[in-house]
Amino acid sequence: xxxxxxxxxxxxxxxxxxxxxxxxxxxxxxxxxxxxxxxxxxxxxxxxxxxxxxxxxxxxxxxxxxxxxxxxxxxxxxxxxxxxxxxxxxxxxxxxxxxxxxxxxxxxxxxx
Amino acid sequence: xxxxxxxxxxxxxxxxxxxxxxxxxxxxxxxxxxxxxxxxxxxxxxxxxxxxxxxxxxxxxxxxxxxxxxxxxxxxxxxxxxxxxxxxxxxxxxxxxxxxxxxxxxxxxxxxxx
Lengths: 112, 114
Description:
The complex is a heterodimer.
Chain A: E1 4-7, E2 10-13, E3 19-25, E4 32-37, E5 43-51, E6 54-57, E7 64-66, E8 76-78, E9 87-93, E10 102-103, E11 107-111
Parallel strand pairs in A: 2-11
Antiparallel strand pairs in A: 1-3, 3-8, 4-5, 4-9, 5-6, 7-8, 9-10, 9-11
Chain B: E1 4-7, E2 10-14, E3 19-25, E4 30-38, E5 44-51, E6 56-59, E7 62-67, E8 72-77, E9 86-94, E10 103-104, E11 108-113
Parallel strand pairs in B: 2-11
Antiparallel strand pairs in B: 1-3, 3-8, 4-5, 4-9, 6-7, 7-8, 9-10, 9-11
């Protein structure tokens, strides 16, 4: 959906390096989410935030960090502690009452 | 936490046939069930959703049914077309403070042969 912008589309990480994935939305949604998708698998929740300056761990938060300083932005940092970072990362927003989650186009992260 | 199982993992049909994908969930508190379609390399797109106060919902060729007692819900696609070929994901969510925290099934690869 055009209101959720993820960048970059492709990202390569060197060993020991932290990388940050950007997610911006102009839909005025309160809630934002980060999911990881591995080939042939469903989406797994990494972190989510239902309000500015607050966020909660999802099912696979280890090795990741987030911040929510603005309503529009929810960046995800993949730290060097995440030993298997290669995946397709999807950001979503919405999810409140009568607000289904809608997704950005994703960032594909690979290891160099 | 919530667990969502989706079957089948792959489904192959002829154009014009119907396709049915089934999901079961574990947490009886779940009350929102969306279905997403994902084409290769693209974002998942919401195609239909249902809330627990409704047993069935239709949108043109797509319908979803919900059986709260049995804790399962299904996606029905009629008169399938080649452009329906994609991966379909079901999901479940609990209301209240965790509203919107979706748990996804593993996905069904649907192939519609012309």
